[in-house]
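Sharing a chain and its predicted structure for anyone who wants a worked example. Both blocks are below, sequence first, tokens second.
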Amino acid sequence: LRQTGQLYLEAFTMAHNRVFTIGPSFRQERKVSDRHLCEFTLIEFEGRDFELDGLMNNIESVLKKMFRAAHEFVPNEALEQFYLMPFNRITYKDAIDLLNDNGFELEQGDDMSSAEEKTLCRLLHNMPTFVTHYPSNPKPKEGGVIKFFSMRRENGVTLCCDLLLPEAGESVGGAVREGNSTLCKKQFEESYMFDHLVEAKVDPQQFEWYFDILSYGTGQSSGCGIGFERVVQSVLATENSEISIKGAVEIPRSP
């Protein structure tokens, strides 16, 4: 049961540059919530001719096509704004400061909750909002931001972006990948993911093929994963703001 095709897409970009996959993604969600599913549709793409700004441009283009198509079936002003107006872009640091200026009590390094993500969109004119440059601490305190080991890090931040959608929250995650095999492997060995593998007696050597492929490459790729049902939820929320993620799926698979 796959979580992501990302590492394989990164490898394919060495031969084909721009690649994508669409398929089911599975998560071992242990608690009942109105935010998560155990199975959802993940749209992923990866390429070598764009970095973070170019990645966000591509994500925005794809989402605008979705919103424009949805507007034909559910014509309303909110959807029209989504595909006509530029998406917001704000750094993680500035996002935390903005939330704290509006009644929240967050520390730099804290992970944002669903409520905080939705509030951030409301504060920024109810538009889709990219949050960029999250902290790069591989092992933050409990409740802190954790980013995947293959993301590129510079000067204490990660070259990444999350796209928050009004009333749905985080719906897309993307990043520039770390193209240096030695550095990427070091980040892997410093990650909580590595510790969890060892604790579960799963051999971390299963990732060696990935580091081996990186060693033959030149530079890095950039890519993302789009949670399709979250996009559907954001479309439905323009008519009913109370809709949950389970309302965006015909037969939701969840705890």
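Comments welcome. Residues 24 and 41 are 5 Å apart (CA to CA).
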